[in-house]
Write the structure tokens for this entry.
Amino acid sequence: MEQASKNVVTGNRLKRYICLSSLQALIVNKPRHNYQNLLEVINLRDLFSKRSIESELRNPTDDFNLETQEIEYRKELLTGRACRINVKRSERKKQAQTGMGYSELIELSAKNCYFCPTNIKTATPMFPSSLVPEGRIKLGETTVFPNLFPFAKYHAVATVSRQHFLGIDEFTLRQIQDTVKASLKYFHCVRSKDQKAVYPIFSWNFLPPAGASVIHPHVQLTVDEQPTNLAWLYLSACKRYYAKHKENYWMHLLEIEKQEGERFLGEIGGVSWITSYVPLGNDEICGVFHDVSSLYGLDDTSISDLSKGLKRVFTAYTLYGVHSFNLSTFSASSEDESFRLIVRIIARPYPQSYYNNDAGYMERLHEEVIVESMPEKVASDLKEYFG
Ligand SMILES: [Zn+2]
């Protein structure tokens, strides 16, 4: 074990520094300590940077022959966020695709499920009448009610379906649309009651590997007075970008991504779908609204565009055998010319009794993401679903 880890870490050397976007690549042989200086002299309108290093090991699956693996250190220049991708690892198929190993779990969890139609009225909390006079918000198959253990001043749950379980590609457009619509109704109720709570987040942890404690499909809705750490990073960086360049970062990004095509999936109404250059997780897909910066700005048309896009994402994920995901929005507090409403979806491990989680010490203790999929490959594989 000790020998293996020693082999893995030997041979790291900075080989080249590549600056992408504007279809321009800079290849410079520089020692590590000059990296920051390089960042300062590159064109500010560039969006991303990449360093590639090589790591050497003697591979036991190849008679301990010396092997060199390439690792990409990618950075999003807007925020400074970074991730690492092992190119060889990204080519390895990760998701188990054999059978529904969690069918027993689904069956067991259906007994006395609080979110199922027979129990939902008696087992789930109700809103204070000052917030929602009816106690709960209902639309189609969706019911919105308070989270029993909130982690925000305003924290609700919305069921997506009456059925206890649906596979990732079984949600209907109507179910997704109604869930978004009912969630927005909740956000508007909060805003009309509390002028300070202006940062809404629409999120979905689908199945236990994504952090869901309840199998029954449901989304999480929070509204805070302050944005989350990462939302703040994006909102503030986009304001600085706008002040400096007099243009919206996301619109500029979409323009570049559409031209280049490597990570561009397609447009569905007023939303463009791309894979992120510096993802927050595996197989990340990102939806960027063209004309809306806040969840409060969504109308029926944009809700429909979003829902159609989400359905395509869920269907596309089945190609990879993805059954579990996290989804979350990044929203401005109101319409903001420097920002655009974003929705990011990442794949999570296959649901089974024993599995490796995809978050380790790098993600949890160093806030640095190790990504197992190459965004360009994901886009190339899944593009057909967005045409
Ligand atoms: Zn249920």
Observations:
- DSSP finds eleven helices and 15 strands in the chain.
- Confidence is low (pLDDT under 50) at residues 1-44.
